[in-house]
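One record is set out below.
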Amino acid sequence: MSNAVRFLAVLSVACLVSIYALSQVRTGTIVVVLFTEEKLVFAGDSLVSAIQADGRTERDYRDCKIATFGNKVIFAGSGTLGETGVWVSAEQAKIAYEMATIKRGADLPIEVTRNWAEAVKGPLAMTYLTHKAVMDARMPDGKLGNAYFGGVDGKGDLWLTFTKFFVVSGVVKYESYKFSPAACTPICGTGEIDVAVEFSQLASDRAKAESASWSPSKSYSPEDRDILRMIRLVDLSIADDEARQIGKIGGPIDAVELKSGGAVRWFSRKSNCPENQD
């Protein structure tokens, strides 16, 4: 099956299913992103709290929130940009990347991001309109979800884009941005990232104390310090969530790295999550 046919097939199923079902909508996620000239690092939790149509909440601690494809691209989303019925935004992300590489436009990051956002917008809008009252109650600020794409281009340079979906006067819209490393300092992220931001910016006494005392195990290479720090930020966020009995984030932490001119390297990955979604 060609990529174009697969794209249309997945989108058609997504549109049909979103009309009838509102299940497995993410209500909690944390993904932190480190972006420098030399490397990209994504680290995230594994808990999905899925609110079913009958109001029950089911929790899955083995969700794969970070996806990679082509050994050159990393994707992660939060909010309703996980699973709704049977449509999965990571599948659209993979197809968007494949379509962009075939087209070979002047700006691969923008092309990939736009392809994905346009594919997701329709199903997301139909899901929202069909279940407007429920989704408005769950997301009173109108923020439906965010997503990051990160990758390496043909020159070996790293890139990062961010897309946010939101509702304005009942209409689902999105905005996408291409980030520079300076715009992502000290970290970027999506979901429940307040604690990660606090600790990364040393914005409190406990954050300063943590920074002064933390160091990675000597069993790790010094080159792994950045990815271990991102894992630590997610771990601290989960610990804070558990201490306050919020229950939005948790489970094992997945972490992946992409260096300029290089390929994707998983540092930690659950066995049920594919190494590459190819």
In short: The first helix runs from residue 3 to 20. The helical segments are 3-20, 89-103, 108-130, 132-138, 194-200, 205-213, 225-243.
